[in-house]
Specification:
Layout: E1 2-6, H1 16-20, E2 26-32, E3 35-38, E4 45-48, E5 53-57, H2 58-67, H3 71-78, E6 87-91, E7 95-98
Antiparallel strand pairs: 1-2, 1-7, 2-5, 3-4, 5-6
Helix pairs in contact: 2-3
Length: 101
């Protein structure tokens, strides 16, 4: 597992203000390649065959938002339906790796 910092507003179905709150957050992540996902609002499947993505466990991501002073965005994510083992995806271009302490 690595730590990433979100440096660009991520793509996705969440409202713009919620996606903007990710910028600056540091998250524990796993690196993956091609994958599929579903939209947070519509549940529509999306296939992401190209590029590299970071996966962040949903609960860890939402706790990170909250602990980094972005509670309204964390509350929005908690109001969405999700399985407990779900992940959020961030494009590699939206992130930078944070070196270990």
């Amino acid at each position: 597992m690595i730590a990433i910092q979100i440096i660009e507003v991520p793509a996705g179905e969440a409202p713009g203000w919620v996606r903007e709150e990710w910028v600056g957050c540091i998250l524990p992540a796993e690196l993956v390649g091609a994958t599929w996902a579903k939209g947070v609002r519509t549940g529509a499947p999306h296939v992401f065959p190209f590029g590299t993505w970071y996966w962040v466990a949903w609960e860890r991501a939402v706790r990170a938002l909250e602990s980094q002073g972005k509670g309204e965005a964390a509350d929005w994510w908690r109001s969405t339906p999700h399985p407990p083992d779900e992940y959020l995806l961030f494009r590699i271009e939206e992130c930078k790796v944070v070196p270990p302490d």
